[in-house]
Amino acid sequence: MKILLLIFTILNTITLTVDANVSDSFSGLNSQTPGCAVGVVKKGELVYERYFGQANLRYQVPIDKKTVFNLGSITKHFTAALALQLEAKGQLSVNDSLKKYYPQGPNWFEDVKLHHLINHQSGLPDYLNDEKTREQLVKRVSTIPHVLAELVVGKPIARDVTLMHVLDTMMALSAPSFKPGENSSYSNTGYLLLADILEKASGIPFSELAQQLFKPLGMSSTELVSLHTVETPWSATGYSAINSPRYKYRRNSSNLITQGDGGILSTLPDFAKWISHLMAPIDDKLFWSTFLHPMKPVSNIGGFSRFQNTDDSKGHFISQILSSLKTVSKIGGVPYNNGLFISKVKGETVYSHRGLSIDSMGSYFWLSPSHSIGYIQLCNFSFDKQPSVNEILDTYAD
User: Fold this and answer.
1) Residue 87 belongs to domain with CATH number
2) How many CB atoms lie within 10 A of CB 382?
3) Which of 352, 398, 346 is nearest to 372 (CA)?
4) Considering its fold, how many domains does the chain have in total?
5) Could you count the other beta carbons within 10 Å of the beta carbon of residue 393?
6) Domain annotation covers residue 16
7) What is the pTM (predicted TM-score) of this model?
């Protein structure tokens, strides 16, 4: 009996220590603040799962496992995966140009390839974050009477309207910001166009293409935001913090619908299934394993990891692609490939991405395939605290 009591005490102490190591970062979140869903995945299991703060402050709805968050820019690596899957099926090539899909575009569209879009090497200015481009887009949209009328009564701008005017804004440029392939600059524009191109190449709406990733994994609470998205009681409300003596948080929403660069809605348990799949694919294992090997020389230059194990007959084609690229894709000095940032921690490769949605939800995840460990943090406001990768690995790695 004493031995059993001792074992129980030891296990309980370990659990409390593990919980403290992760949850310390979220100690300030409570019933009066927005919050986060936090999870650690190990060998396909959600071994740590905690929920902090409120999904909706007005109605005091706490965040739980059903809470749906907008993943924002985390969507990009899903889009990249879909592009590479269509290439594997022979429906497109990452060496296709923008001109192929938008023949009415300027001549320089011929120089922008799909792999440039995937790895932010296109030179297309960011329609959301580049001030000049954003102003031009707003001017274009503001000239459409029915759009203004709908905005006044709170209706959203359809994704096709946004896409059309972003494309028109790009076509009006005399040249890209830099020669495609010779530099890197984070751009939502590339992924917005990429989603449209995937529709053109496959003949399937992007939202349905995405479901081909979600359904096999049982991600039943994951979808793309659209005009037809139905409000559910467990959808999180986005908030932004404001400096006011009376209110700490303000509800934030967006009337802009986009896909490809953002727009995936998901829950912590659903996203854990996706992370588990990336580390231990349940099907098409060769494709998914090569999707996560961009630190090797060939795939380090972006979008070509699936060619590492191909035969020599592809060699000439690969050489042509690589010769058109002058620099490894790096964003803020960090290597980037297939919609993921790549870093080294404890000598092992870690893949990660952050997401800030237009409605102010902030998400973050990373995964370490060699350790079979992943970390997920989904928040309904811009929250920049999280345990370090080292802390999680020290706690959960074998």
Assistant:
1) 3.40.710.10
2) 18
3) 398
4) 1
5) 17
6) no
7) 0.86
